[in-house]
Amino acid sequence: MSQTKVAHLPRWAAILQVIASIFGLIQIALIAKIIGVVVLERQYKVVFMVLIFFISGLMRFAIDALGCRVAFKFAYSFVSQKRQEMLERWRNISPLDINCPSSGKVASVFSEQSEMVVSYLSRFQPIALKACILPIIIFFLVLYYSWIAAFILLITAPLIPLFMILIGWHAKEASQKHLSEVGELNAMLIDRLKGLLTIRSLDAVEITAQKLRDHSENLCRRTMEVLKIAFLSSAVLELFSSLSVAMIAVYVGFSLLGQINFGAWGRQITLYEGLFILLLAPAFFEPLRELSSVWHERAAGEVALKQLETLGNRALRMVPVDHKMISCKGPPSVHLQDICFRYNKIDRLLFNKFNLSVFPGEHIALFGPSGCGKSTILSLIAGFVIPEEGHIRVGNIAINGYTILSARSRMAWVDQNPYFFSGSIKSNLRLALLEANDQQISNALKDVFLDIAPDTLIGEGGMGLSGGEALRLALARTLLKPNVDIFLIDEPTAHLDSETASFITKSLLSVTKNHTLIVSTHDIKLASLMDRVIPIEDIKNSLI
């Protein structure tokens, strides 16, 4: 695989499965010997050989089971580690990243596709080792008794890997397209379910249903392409192995009848030797047959592993959290010094040497038109994005991996579209303080002038709430968060009528009294109520 480091099983786990297969060869030799002794020598006292046969079978089963168990445990442990690494990456992905893969695709990679990696690692590598070793052992065993039979195996065996490689290239491409289609369908389905109300209101149900049908039919085609390749690889193997076994059977049969007197190193093949060669011929192709059956699993597993390792690698990052947390105490002040930031490296700098100081208890408005960077400043303070250059201090403590959790614990964040889960008002408010009692919840609702019962049920995403009610409920939630002294509020009055905006402004000033408030807005009325107005568009590149 390119650009993806493939894990390797512990070598002895694969070797155990090879040893188990060698016990299978011993069983084949014993079967041929037992039949030869009984038929030709009329000796029925073969109990000792039968006993060895069953002991070999038990040993084969036990060793193979141990090897498979070790391989599966390693594969599952490896995938669990990769899942954990993926979670760590996603834990630090900024909520401002517009190019972030959809939750449906992430869920597909994390759950369904990662299971393909377990199958690939636990099965393919041991089978590949068996396919490299066992045919060579069998070839020399056959060669010892007949060079003709060995020659037949020799001319057919190399053709199989050649065709497998050619088919494998196509299989990997088909698997990549198939898994990509699975992720896209999952993403589309989840997104459409989230926006079901909007789809119905726009009378777009038929259009959406048709798109889902198109995607599902496309997925069916991709699936059939993968299955076609899997059957094709099996058919190629069966063709060559059947021809080889048939030719060896014809040679052995005529040799036992005395019609062919060459190819056995100048002597006649015995019944035991003929049976042994005949039983070894299918066993020669058995590891290759197993390899063929897992060949498409390898292709799918490699693609899934690459997705698991790389999904979200290029996403916009938040300040990473270090487990050694340092307390971010001090006055509720905020300082941005010489900040340089842009969302993509190919874009021009959104901020170049930007400076801002907010003093304890001060209310300031970041004022300017949409797109000038007001929300970005709030995100920089909260650590949701990382500046290319410059320093951010909260309470005179620099924001970094050691201090970010402590800094966020004293901040309250309310964005333009606060999210609420399906359930009661009470359960959504308790996200800020799990042990909040009914009196605390009622007081928080009263403080934001929201006349709504705590047991009122709302839908996913705040369905059932108006825009103004959702914002006031978000403010009530911040009131329940303990130890908050810095409020970061993003466009609280955007897209609201004047009466609702007045309620929101009143609630906001009530909630943030005696606390530090930084609000982004282009509402002149709200900005006029602040202690200071920062015109972002005019002074982006100036020292404040």
Describe, in plain words, how this protein is organized in 3D.
With 544 residues, the chain is of the alpha/beta class. It folds into 2 domains: 11-310, ABC transporter type 1, transmembrane domain (ABC transporter transmembrane region fold), CATH 1.20.1560.10; 334-539, Rossmann fold (3-Layer(aba) Sandwich), CATH 3.40.50.300. Helix 15 (498-511) links the parallel strand 9 (486-490) and strand 10 (516-521). The chain has 17 helices and 11 strands. The strands form 3 sheets. Strands 6-9-10-3-11 form a 5-stranded parallel beta sheet, with helices on both faces. A 4-stranded antiparallel beta sheet has the order 2-1-4-5, with no helix packed on it. The longest helix is centred in the middle third of the chain and has 52 residues, at 205-256. Helix 1 runs antiparallel to helix 2 (47-91), helix 5 runs antiparallel to helix 7 and helix 13 packs across helix 14 (467-480). The two termini are 52 Å apart. It is elongated, with a radius of gyration of 35 Å. GO terms for molecular function: ABC-type transporter activity; ATP binding; ATP hydrolysis activity; ATPase-coupled lipid transmembrane transporter activity. Residues 334-544 form the ABC transporter domain. The chain crosses the membrane at residues 12-40, 46-63, 127-145, 151-169, 229-257.
Notable characteristics:
about 550 residues, alpha/beta, ABC transporter transmembrane region fold, Rossmann fold, 2 domains, five-stranded parallel sheet, four-stranded antiparallel sheet, 17 helices, about 60% helix, elongated, disordered N terminus
